[in-house]
Amino acid sequence: MTIAAVLVAGCLALAVAGSAVATLVRHPKIVDTAAAVGFPVQHVWMLGVVKLAAAVGLACGLLWWPVSVAAALGLVAYFVAAIGMHLRAHQRDIAAPAVFLALSTAAAVLLAGVGP
Q: pTM of the prediction?
């Protein structure tokens, strides 16, 4: 595994884990954003579980690369959907999901290049 792949995946895992914790404790900004884009507020905890699972997958995937590739690709899909929901709701504040999408994409590309 390359140093770049480990660094990007590690940084992404830490960032997503932090976001997952904030989501699971129902940080007011996250709950307000979910409501603004039309996501059911009572199901926000599910988003936290998905993010936490991805963070664990990225971390465990450092031992077996296919797991980290799957986690990174799952995050790419998650953040594409998040940006889509923001745009559908005419919310133009997409900086955070766009940064996460860029990191997820970079991790997926770097980690996929590690395999056979």
A: 0.93
